[in-house]
TrEMBL record:
SUPFAM superfamilies: Outer membrane efflux proteins (OEP)
Protein name per UniProt: Histidine kinase
Membrane topology label: Lipid-anchor
Gene3D superfamilies: Outer membrane efflux proteins (OEP)
Signal peptide segment: none
Keywords assigned: Kinase, Lipoprotein, Membrane, Palmitate, Transferase, Transmembrane, Transmembrane beta strand
Pfam family membership, one: OEP
Family from the record: Belongs to the outer membrane factor (OMF) (TC 1.B.17) family.
Chloroplast found in the keyword field: no
Source species: Acidocella aquatica
Localization: Cell membrane
A single MF term (Gene Ontology): kinase activity
Source taxon at top rank: Bacteria
Length: 447
């Protein structure tokens, strides 16, 4: 089947549905609902969103109210110390009521608080794109594992077919040996060939079990509780039209690039925070309240208390801490810039690798199909000629080996096209912008 590239074509959010496999769709839906890594990423995103909401309050005044009741009794000696006559009777106990309202506000003259909020918003965006990347990786890994399972099943079937043919051939040789028609050496050769084919089967079966266990992990269940349908190459249909995006679209579509961009934004905001910490900090505080010895007098004019305080704090000597923190923030900004560049280059490399692989996969599969057909015909012809005495046993053994290798290569080539198709969709971003199963960030996209 030929695949056609469609430059500029959009990518569906459920791109895996193009394989037209209900079993694959059901497995991915179960994984999206129950995968613990996704749940952890979702919880982390929620954490950063709540932290962002908390940081919004930094730009607003802080208002607090209080009500205090104080009880006490002064000693007669303390009264005598003030110049009044001492009394032998204890002074009466008293209560003092205080109701107050306090307002404080830190003037963000240098933008430190705003840059802090900007950093929190960028951190939220980073976690959102990390969640999108986790979704994309999970779906692509499930498709790859499903294809791997189907490939292993096909390899096991091909190996079992070869083993069956070799057992039949061994039975014929053993009958001929009993009649004196062949030498013992021929029987031993066929037994050795059969044993080699049987030895190739357990590793394939072990790999198949591991592939099933891997799928169980993606779904979020233990292997013993995994009962999803088996995958075969016949149940997975190769998408015939593949999208190709221009570089500018790849930058916007790849969640890892967007996450790296958000990290760069965080690092830039942290430099602004470090700069602001080296400059004067101005704060305003206002307190108003009333104080009385009984609640009935608490709101009388003479019980009014108030104060207004303005303060300026300028760091003078911090042992080089603020300067070092600013230099560290600048270094982190440089590192984030380099990491962003590396991520973009890696993304372009992923797309180029996937396109190249798909281009050569078709050629490889075509050659593998031709080789498998030729090997099957050669084996059938050689076996027929051997029965008629026209070919030695060694020719049959060689034809059997060639057929087994060709059949396995054909299966692997078919699986490679399916896997590399998934790799292309992953490299192009996987259409996450069309999905609605990830909640939009609380404060929107940072311009």
């Amino acid at each position: 089947m030929a695949q056609v590239f469609a430059p500029g074509a959009d990518i569906a959010g459920d791109w895996w549905s193009l394989y037209h496999s209900p079993e694959l769709d059901a497995l991915i839906n179960a994984a999206l609902a129950h995968n613990p890594n996704l749940q952890a990423a979702q919880a982390t995103l929620l954490q950063t969103e709540e932290n962002e909401r908390a940081d919004v309050g930094v730009l607003m005044p802080s208002v607090s109210a209080g009500f205090k009741v104080q009880g006490g009794q002064n000693s007669t000696d303390s009264v005598a110390g003030t110049g009044f006559a001492a009394s032998t009777k204890p002074l009466p106990a008293y209560r003092l009521y205080n109701a107050s309202l306090s307002v404080s506000y830190a003037l963000d003259i240098w933008g430190g608080a705003r840059r802090g909020l900007e950093s929190a918003q960028a951190q939220t965006q980073y976690q959102r794109y990390e969640l999108e990347a986790a979704y994309l990786s999970l779906t692509a890994n499930i498709v790859t594992a499903a294809v791997q399972e189907a490939s292993l099943r096909a390899q096991i079937d091909a190996t079992n077919q070869v083993i069956g043919d070799e057992r039949q051939q061994l039975g014929i040789l053993q009958s001929q040996l009993s009649l004196g028609g062949v030498a013992q050496a021929s029987v031993l050769q066929e037994q050795a060939t059969l044993a080699a084919s049987e030895a190739a089967l357990p590793p394939l079966q072990a790999a198949l079990a591991q592939a099933r266990n891997q799928l169980a992990g993606y779904v979020g269940v233990v292997p013993g509780d995994f009962h999803e349908a088996d995958f075969t190459l016949d149940s997975l249909h190769l998408p015939d039209t593949l999208p190709v995006s221009v570089p500018s679209e790849i930058v916007a579509q790849r969640p890892d690039i967007q996450a790296a961009s958000a990290q760069l934004h965080v690092a830039s905001a942290n430099v602004g925070i470090a700069d602001a910490q080296m400059l004067p900090q101005i704060s305003l505080t206002a307190d108003i309240g009333r104080e009385a010895i009984n609640t009935g007098d608490l709101f009388m004019p003479q019980t009014l208390l108030w104060s207004l305080v303005a303060g300026v704090t300028q760091p003078i000597f911090e042992g080089g801490q603020l300067s070092a923190k600013r230099k560290a923030a600048l270094a982190a900004l440089q590192a984030s810039g380099a990491q962003y560049q590396a991520t973009v280059i890696g993304a372009f490399q992923n797309v180029a690798d996937a396109l190249s692989a798909l281009q050569y996969d078709a050629l490889t599969l075509s050659a593998a199909d031709t080789a498998a057909d030729a090997a099957a015909q050669s084996l059938a012809l050689t076996q027929a000629q051997y029965r008629l005495g026209g070919q030695p046993l060694s020719a049959v053994l060689i034809a059997q080996t060639n057929y087994q290798n060709a059949a396995i290569a054909q299966v692997k080539a078919s699986a490679a096209r399916l896997v590399d198709t998934a790799a292309l969709y992953q490299a192009l971003g996987g259409g996450w912008w069309h999905r609605s199963d990830v909640a939009v960030s609380c404060c929107g996209v940072i311009p």
